[in-house]
Amino acid sequence: MQFIPFSPLIDIGFWSQLSKNKIEIYKLDDGERSLLVKTKINPYQEKTSQLYLDIYAFQDEITLNKSGPFEVYSRIQFQNYNTIETYQEFDHLNYVQQTFKKMIESFSKDEKPNLFQGRMSIFADLKKYLFYYKLVVPQFQIENIQNIIQKSLTDYLGDQMQLFQQQLSLIIQQQQKEISNTSFVILRKENLQYVQFDEYQKNKQDVIFLYFDSYNQAQLNGQFNNFLAYLITNNSIKDQLNNIKIIVIKDALTINKNQFSLKNSIYLELNLSESKIIEQNGQYKAFNIEGYLQEKKIDLKSFMDEQSLAREAVDLNIKLMKWRLLPELDLEKVQTQKVLLIGAGTLGCQLARNLIGWGIRKITFVDYGKISYSNPVRQSLYDFEDSTKGGRPKAEVAAEKLKKIFPDIESEGYQLQIPMPGHFVTELQVQQTLESFYKLSELVSTHDAVFLLTDSRESRWLPTVLSNAYGKMCFSVALGFDSFLIIRHGISLKKYNPEIHGERLACYFCNDISSPGNSMKDRTLDQQCTVTRPGLSFLASAYSSELFVSLIHSPLLDGTPASDNTEQLQQTDLGILPHFLRGQLSDFEVRLFYGRAFKHCVACSQQILDALEKNPQSFLLEALNRPDVLQDISGITEELTQNKQEIHEIQDIDGDDECSVLQIIS
After folding, report:
1. Residue 536 DSSP SS3
2. Burial environment of residue 293 by CB neighbours within 10 A (0 to 12, 13 to 18, 19 or more)
3. DSSP string spanning 284-296?
4. Which pLDDT score, from 0 to 100, does residue 237 have?
5. Are 74 and 246 in contact (CB under 8 A)?
6. Which residue ranges does the record assign to the THIF-type NAD/FAD binding fold domain (predicted)?
7. Which helix (H) or strand (E) covers residue 181, if one does?
8. Active-site residue list
């Protein structure tokens, strides 16, 4: 008798589901699990005997087919290793020998045998979409098999063919509901009736074994050896070994049909009285062991488009953080954040890179400037070509470059001049200014978080007002020569509840008692450029992105309280949630500060909010042309007059105009 080994046929859905399970379920657990495998006979001529694995291999239960081809289900072991070294270290030869011993021990018992035992060892390199695996199916080798009779099933059955067809239809309907691991059933010789295994144990006389082979040509699958090994080692049927009757089904069967073409199926009568399992040097000899031990490699990159690969790779990096270190990381919440960056310069470019590293899919830039020759060396989204021919618009190029880095991102750029207090608006400029105002309002209202990254105080005022008006998270990040400042603005008054949020936190302007003015006027050359130490923007953007991601994991979001005592600060799995940070490169130190909201703030107070909502256009134009009006509207002027408060000193904490936080010291 000639035999042929299994050849695995693994659907791409299997590898896709394995990748998903590894990241979301298995994580670092590389223990043994089970797979549901199946064999079936195809209607066309095959060169191999195929063992099928698909997306359903990971299920606990069979997905029943009410029609279609009949499939024999079995369950095997599998182990997905964390490293290629541990994958390679597993001793598959020892596994085969130990499996053989367990099989022979079980064969001697009067119980339904497990003829189909196998193991799949896998190492999945998910960063490269490479899968290494070995699929080993232990199969005995048997000697001294005497073939008494072999004929076509059609010739053997003769007039009983119709009866057999009916019985076969019932059998496959029953068998397709089970995970059998046997590949055979038992029939009574006289009437071809199906016999339950327990019933067979009581009377083993005059039976025919019905064996489902997985190969439709002359050879038998090597799995038939395990069936023979069961017969010759089961003591209870030793008396029948000289004449074992077997019907071998080698044709495609279709569920819910009563007629089958059985042209390839055969009838055998075997004499197994002298048959033995082959042993060599105290080891059982395994069929096709060299072939089964051969490592195979699957490269899925060729099946995926490049954009999908990039998306999966980015997601994988973040998911690795989740199941290795941060089980409470809410990936969906992070990735669905819509972020508006006001400023596409040194800070905006690097912050955008950090945010896409967290998997954020929606980033919008606002910047009025164009790329100059000095920008590309410090602003990481631009290159020299962007600065030529007068320079391209920063916001538009930043969005374009972000898509080149990560094609799956949704990014837009707007070359928009932000209306600023102290920057006088003529009658000819009113219409354009209002258009900018309404566009900026629209952008703030449609995003979840706003980052203020511009290089002047007055350019941060209107976005701060609008963030308060629309109830959006707002962060200010500013650079000095060797210092940086990061502030998470207090929660909007529209959402503020003192019983829940405690003391409301200050915004960027809460420590000012004067309106922001035109700081661009009469600037010398050194003041016209943002002069900072080159590494500062990377530090500031890193701290601000991490603070943002940590904050959105807090149940209170931007309403999370703060304190001047670091030990009392709220925290998430990513760390504490300070109010604002001041970094100083000169001593390589970052200090944490805390400030309460000022009830007369020129940007976030209720008075400013009311004025904006009452008459937006009038309020805006008056604030731009006469910025001192903000002190009147907010109540600072009246407060100072009524209390006759004397201000002895207004101290700038570090003396830098761009990132000063002022404190009133009376």
Report:
1. helix
2. middle
3. EPBTTHHHHHS-E
4. 80
5. no
6. 321-554
7. none
8. 529
Nearest to 323 by CA among 126, 60, 35: 126
Burial of 650 (0-12, 13-18, 19+ CB in 10 A): middle
DSSP alpha helix (H) spans, 80-207: 84-89, 92-107, 153-157, 161-175, 197-202
Separation of alpha carbons 596 and 511, rounded Å: 9
The rounded distance, in Å, linking the Cα atoms of 307 and 144 is 59
pLDDT at site 278: 95
φ, ψ for residue 482 (rounded to 5)? -130, 25
Three-class DSSP category at 362: strand
Residue pair 402/379 in contact by the 8 Å Cβ criterion: no
Half-sphere exposure of 432 (CA within 13 A, CB side): 10
CA distance 588 to 585: 4
Cα dihedral 516, 521, 526, 528 sign:
positive
> Cα–Cα distances in Å, from 106 out to 103, 502, 549?
5, 70, 57
Q: Quote the pLDDT of residue 323.
A: 63
Residue 503 sits at φ, ψ, to 5 deg, of -70, 130
In whole angstroms, what is the distance from residue 170 CA to residue 559 CA?
Answer: 67
- Output DSSP code: residue 499: H
Q: What is the pLDDT of residues 320-338, one digit of tens each?
A: 777 666 778 888 899 999 9
Residue 659 pLDDT greater than 90, yes or no = no
Cβ atoms within 10 Å of 558's Cβ, excluding its own: 25
Listed residue (629, 19, 639) closest to 311, CA to CA: 19
Q: What's the Cα-to-Cα distance from 507 to each of 87, 460, 570, 594, 597, rounded to whole Å?
A: 55, 11, 18, 11, 7
Backbone angles phi, psi at 279, to 5 degrees: -120, 150
Once rounded to an integer, what is the mean pLDDT over residues 196-223? 85
Residues 6+ apart with CB under 8 A from 285: 140, 141, 278, 279
User: How does DSSP assign 410-435, residue by residue?
Assistant: EEEEE--PPP-TTS---GGGHHHHHH
Over residues 232-254, mean pLDDT: 87
Helix (H) or strand (E) holding 366: strand 362-366
User: Which amino acid would we find at residue 631?
Assistant: Q
Closest CA to 354 of 343, 339, 369, 367: 339
Helix residue ranges per DSSP H, 42-119: 84-89, 92-107
Segment 134-144 shows an average pLDDT of 95
Instruction: Give the length of the chain.
Output: 666
pLDDT digits (tens, 9 = 90+) for 400-414: 999 999 888 999 999
What is the spatial distance between Cα 422 and Cα 620, in angstroms, rounded to a whole number? 11
Q: Which of 368, 592, 393 is nearest to 462 (CA)?
A: 368
- Phi then psi dihedrals of residue 576, to 5 deg: -75, 165
Among candidate residues 536, 549, 367, the one with its CA nearest the CA of residue 449: 549
**Alpha-carbon span 28 to 80, nearest angstrom:** 10
Q: Which residues lie closer than 8 Å to 33 by C-beta, 6 or more apart?
A: 26, 77, 78, 79, 80
Tokens matching residue 23:
């990241």
DSSP state for residue 183 in the 8-state scheme? -
pLDDT for 45 beyond 80? no
What angle separates helix 616-625 from helix 606-614, to the nearest 10 degrees?
A: 120
